[in-house]
Amino acid sequence: MEFDIQINQIVPSMGYRTLYIEANQPGNVIAAKSDAEGILENAFWQIALNEDGTLQLVDKDSGVRYDRVLQIEESSDDGDEYDYSPAKEEWVMTSATAKPQCEITHEAWQSRAVIRYDMAVPLNLLERSVRQSTGRVGVEMVVTLSHNSRRIDVDINLDNQADDHRLRVLIPTSFNTDSVLADTQFGFANAPRERQCNEQLAARRLERSAGSGMEYAQLCSLTGRA
């Protein structure tokens, strides 16, 4: 026999607390705080589900609203096992047209939303080049909001039935930055935004080109040089 137990305890930093489970003893059953349909909410966040399976977040402290959070973006990947490289015939798709199935459960110490949908995507690079999509990606997202936590937990499971592509989760924010920090297989990379990155990469290649006429012409076209 298995049981799921939720414990509402504050543990001090670098400390511990010992709890005992007593069999066959009556306990207090805490009722769920909210039955609001389509809403997860605590003292810090209000989370509503959009029709396409994305989230609308409201930060109660600041009043800032974040919309269309957790949209899936699908695009090509013609690189190898180490490097990402978009295909020449790109076709970017998103989950904006998804028809999700959503389940919301309110429990004593947390609320949880389960969002499921399928995305039709190109099966491979050849299909992408001719705008066909016989491949499929099954998406399951589990969003958990504990009643006393500022953190929103998200667990994403994918059933990938396509090749040569990249999936990204989009989280729109109001942050403005000149660089992007991304993880790799062996560490992380701090890179400028895409346009700046392309120009700087082209400039570095020009310095190393050693007189290759064709490469020089291609790179000048990229940087806009005459």
Automatic annotation (TrEMBL):
Organism from which the protein derives: Escherichia coli
Pfam families: Glyco_hydro_38C
Domain Glycosyl hydrolase family 38 C-terminal: 40-196
InterPro entries named in the record: Gal_mutarotase_sf_dom, Glyco_hydro_38_C
Gene3D superfamilies: Golgi alpha-mannosidase II, domain 4
Enzyme class per UniProt: hydrolase
SUPFAM superfamilies: Galactose mutarotase-like
Keyword Chloroplast: no
Xref: PANTHER family: ALPHA-MANNOSIDASE 2C1, MANNOSYLGLYCERATE HYDROLASE
Source taxon at top rank: Bacteria
UniProt keyword annotations, A-Z: Glycosidase, Hydrolase
Organism lineage string: Bacteria, Pseudomonadati, Pseudomonadota, Gammaproteobacteria, Enterobacterales
Protein name, as recorded: Alpha-mannosidase
A GO MF term: carbohydrate binding
The enzyme's E.C. designation: 3.2.1.170
Gene Ontology biological process terms from the UniProt entry: mannose metabolic process; oligosaccharide catabolic process
